[in-house]
Automatic annotation (TrEMBL):
One of its GO terms (biological process) is transmembrane transport. Keywords: Cell membrane, Membrane, Transmembrane, Transmembrane helix, Transport. It is found in: Cell membrane. InterPro entries: ABC_transporter_permease, MetI-like, MetI-like_sf. GO terms for cellular component: plasma membrane. PROSITE patterns: ABC_TM1 (PS50928). It comes from Paenibacillus silvestris. It is a multi-pass membrane protein. This is ABC transporter permease subunit. Residues 94-306 form the ABC transmembrane type-1 domain. Pfam families: BPD_transp_1. The chain crosses the membrane at residues 35-61, 98-119, 131-151, 179-204, 225-250, 290-307. Its main location: membrane.
Length: 317
């Protein structure tokens, strides 16, 4: 009888169904934490509304003759893409974009590496110098472009004033088709030095000191240590900056818009500015969307080529 009574007593470890609020706080036996989904919900909504939806809608527009000024928006299939094949202005803009990429990416990486090596030393005020070089990165591109418009002004600009002091004739930087793109590249490189410098500094400070000490014992010069120790160990960092810099350079817009607006004589008309011109000046949204997807295909192809080169060096991005 006593054993039957003991069996009939309710267990103190009786399993109860967790409440909604316990589930929300992640207090479940299966260790699932639904509250995490609430944390990522704002970012997910932002991603869907402002990135994924516009991308898909732009793809939809690229198959239509879509003009803001006309109510009729007929489906044209691949018509916008075939039209691009004969669009000389678009391919000239693409050539200008490749010119900008070829000029800005290697120059920016080289200058940033030199600055990073100099500022990686222990010297007085090094943190202030790093801050000064990084300031353009966090500054408004529009404001910086307006300052550079004054610096590059042909008659009373600061740069021509300094050149005149050393006996060099002033250059019409933003008014000469032969110099306008060089001026745009110069401003873009100057603005991006700080970001690339920080990445290089992180890579340089990750190189063990004993490797340099061993190289010194072997009698290696500074130049030999740079090529035999620094460069090989910085290769992943170089590849990372090369990929990201190429992608961002293909999308250059603000500097061109503020400094030259594609001029003079179309010498700085890059693809993104060309797309802007088609979409918001001529209101050909469908055709501009097709141009955007062609640019995406070009960037994707170039990036895949870079990644293939990385894999040949046994680095993964």
């Amino acid at each position: 009888m006593e054993s039957d009574a003991a069996v009939s007593l309710p267990s103190s470890k009786q399993v109860t169904k967790p409440s909604f609020w316990k589930k929300l706080r992640g207090q479940t036996a299966s260790d699932e934490k639904p509250i995490g989904y609430l944390f990522i919900l704002p970012a997910s909504l932002h991603l869907i509304v402002f990135i994924i939806y516009p991308i898909l809608f732009a793809l939809y527009l690229s198959f239509h003759k879509w003009s803001i000024l006309k109510p009729d928006k007929p489906f044209v299939g691949l018509g916008n893409y075939t039209k691009l094949l004969d669009d000389t202005d678009f391919w000239i803009a693409m050539k200008h974009t490749f010119y900008f990429v070829a000029g800005s990416v290697p120059t920016g990486i080289a200058v940033s590496l030199i600055v990073a090596i100099v500022l990686n030393r222990k010297m007085r005020g090094v943190y202030w110098f790093r801050t000064i070089f990084f300031l353009p990165v966090i500054s408004s591109t529009v404001a910086i472009a307006m300052v550079w418009q004054w610096i590059l002004q042909p008659e009373f600009g600061l740069l021509n004033f300094l050149l005149a002091k050393v006996g060099i004739t002033g250059i019409k930087w933003l008014l000469d088709p032969n110099w306008a793109m060089i001026a745009v590249i110069m401003v873009s490189v100057w603005k991006g030095i700080g970001y690339q410098m920080i990445i290089f500094l992180a890579g340089l400070q990750g190189i063990p000191d004993h490797l340099y000490e061993a190289a010194k014992i072997d009698g290696a010069s500074r130049w030999r240590m740079f090529w035999s120790v620094t460069v090989p160990l910085l290769t992943p960092t170089l590849f990372f900056l090369a990929v990201t810099s190429v992608i961002s350079s293909f999308q250059v817009f603000t500097v061109v818009y503020m400094l030259t607006e594609g001029g003079p004589l179309g010498s700085t008309d890059v693809v993104v500015y060309h797309i802007y011109d088609q979409a918001f000046k001529r209101f050909n949204m469908g055709y501009a969307s097709a141009q955007s997807y062609v640019l995406f295909a070009v960037i994707f192809t170039v990036t895949m080529i870079q990644i293939k080169v990385m894999k040949r060096f046994n680095y993964e991005y």
